[in-house]
Amino acid sequence: MTPLLILGLVIVIGLSLAAFGTARIRESKRRALLVDPQVQRSARADALDELHSQAREAAHKTGWAPVGRWTSSGRDRSTDTEREAPVPRERWIHVGEVFSPAAPIHRQDLFAGRQQQMEDLINVGFERGQHAAVFGERGVGKTSLATIMTSVFAALENKIVVRVNCDATDTFDSVWRKVIDEIHVLAALRADDRADPLRSAVEAAENEMSDVTQMRANDVRKLLRMVSNALDCIVFIDEFERLKDPQSTASFAETIKILSDESVSATIVLVGVGDNLEELLSEHGSIERALAQIHMPRMSPEELADIVERGLEILDMKIEHDALATIVNISKGLPHFTHLITQSAARAAIDEAEREITAQHVSSAITKLSYRTQETVLNAYGVATTSKRDTIYPQVLLACALAPSDQQGFFSAADVVEPLSEVMARPYPIPSFSRHLHALSETSRGPALQRRGSEHRYRFRFMNPLLQPYVLMKGIAEGSILDSQLERFLTGTNTEDAG
C-alpha cells in the first residue's frame, strides 16, 4: 500500500470520526434541553393508547373510535382523509391553520401534552355524580382542552355534549338558556337511531321550562334529568371566571350538589375558573367530593417542543435546535406564545423559500412580534414602565421575567437580583429595586405584578401571564438580553412553595 493511499485512508477515517463526534455533541446538547422527540412521541402515543383503552372500558359497548388518534406505531389516519404535505405556495396559508395563537386547538393531531388532564376528564365523564373544574392561568390552553374533549366525548353514541362560553354580562339563568339552545340544535342535527328519543326528551324539557322566568338549580336538575333519559349529558361551561355575579356562582355550586346527590346522569365541567375556584367551593363545602379539581399548569419544555415539531411535521418543515430552544424558553410554558412565534418564524422561512426554521427566522419573528402583539399586553407594558423621568422599570420588569419561579409563577425579590445585575451590567442589591417591585404591584402601574405574603416575605408574579413572554421578546428585540443569557436564566426553576 503506497504512502499516499495510507494518508488518504487516515484522512477519511479522521473526517468520519469528527463527523460522528460532532453529531454526538449536537445530540447531547439537544437532550440537555429537550427530551428526544422520538422518545416523546413514543411516550405520548403509549399514554394516549392507555387513555383510549380506559375510555373504551368505561364506555363498555359504545363502539367509540376516536378520530385521528395516535398509536404506538404513529398517526392512525384510518379515520382521517389522507392528505399530502402542502406545496410551498400553500404552506404559508396552512401555517395559520396549524399554528393558531388566536384560537383554541380543535384538531386532535395538533393537540400536544395534557395527557393527565385528558385522562382525568375521561374518568369524570364516565362516573355518575362526578363533575369537574378545570383551572389554571390565562393562556395555558384550558379552552383548547375543552374543545378537544368535547369532540372526544361527542364521538360516543350514548352521549350528548354541549359547550358554551360565559361572558361578563351572563347570569346563571342566561348561561343555562344558552345550554338549552345548544341542546336543541344538537338534537335537530342528530341523524342516528337515538335522534327521535333525544328530540322527544328535549321537547318535553322545553315544555317543562316554558313557564320558568328565572332558572334555578332545581330547574336545571329537571332539565338535565329529562335530557339524560335519552342520552348521558356532558356540559362544558368555558370561561367561567367571566361570570361576575356572586349569586350565579352560588347557584352553580348548588346545582352540582343537587345533581351529585340525586345521581343524575349528567356531568358539568367548569373551565377557566382561575382564582374563583375557592369561592365556588366555599359556597358548598360538601361539593368538594363531587367536583374533580383539574389543574392546568404551564406546559413543560418537552410539551412546547412537541407543539412545534408536530405542527412542522404536518407542514413538511423542520427547525434548528437553537431556534426551537429560543421559542421554548420565551414561551415560559404558555402555548399561546409557542404558536405565535412559530407561526411568524415559519412564514419568514417560507418567504425565503426555506423549509427549515433557523435562529435568524425566530429572531426576525421576535422583533416583529415585539411591536405587533395584543393591544391589552402592549398597554399593560406601557402602564408598567412609562415614567416622566428616566427610571429602571423596564429593566426591573425584564429581570422579573427572567427570575426563577415556583410552579405557580411566584418569585421573590432575591430571585430578581442576579438577572437585574446582569441586565444592568453591575450589581443591583435588593434595596436598590425593592420599591420598583412594590410600585409594579400597585394600581398606578397596572398592576403588572401580583403581590402575596407579608412584609419581608413578599412574593410576586405577573398579573397577566401573557405579559411575561412579551417582556422577554421585547428584551431580546432591543438587545437588553441575549439568547444565551435567556437560555441560562430560564432552564432552571425555583421549587420553593409560594407564600
What is the compact description of this entry?
By secondary structure, the protein is α/β, with parallel strands linked by helices.
Secondary structure layout:
Elements (H helix, E strand, L loop, with lengths): L2 H31 L3 H23 L10 E2 L2 E2 L12 H11 L16 H11 L5 E5 L6 H13 L4 E7 L6 H18 L5 H15 L7 H12 L3 E7 L7 H16 L4 E6 L5 H7 L7 E5 L5 H14 L3 E2 L1 H11 L3 H17 L4 E2 L1 H11 L5 H11 L7 H10 L10 H12 L9 H7 L8 E4 L6 E4 L4 H11 L5 H8 L9
Parallel strand pairs: 3-6, 3-7, 4-5, 5-6, 8-9
Antiparallel strand pairs: 1-2, 10-11
Throw out a few tags for this protein.
499 residues, two-stranded antiparallel sheet, 54% helix, disordered C terminus, alpha/beta
How would you characterize this protein structure?
This protein has 499 residues and is an alpha/beta fold. It is built from 20 helices and eleven strands. The protein has a five-stranded parallel sheet, with helices on both faces. Strands 1-2 form a two-stranded antiparallel ribbon. Strand 10 and strand 11 form a beta hairpin. The radius of gyration is 26 Å and the shape is globular. The C terminus is likely disordered.
Strand order of the largest sheet: 4-5-6-3-7
Radius of gyration of CA atoms, rounded to a whole number: 26 Å
Q: How many β strands by DSSP? A: 11
Helix content: 40-55%
Major pleated sheet: 5 strands, parallel
* Proportion of residues in extended strands: 5-15%
Tally of contiguous helical segments: 20
- Average per-residue pLDDT, rounded, comes to 80
Kindly name the structural category. alpha/beta
Choose one word for the global shape. Answer: globular
> Any low-confidence stretches, pLDDT <50, length ≥5?
4-13, 15-20, 22-37, 54-83, 493-499
Q: How many angstroms separate the termini?
A: 75 Å
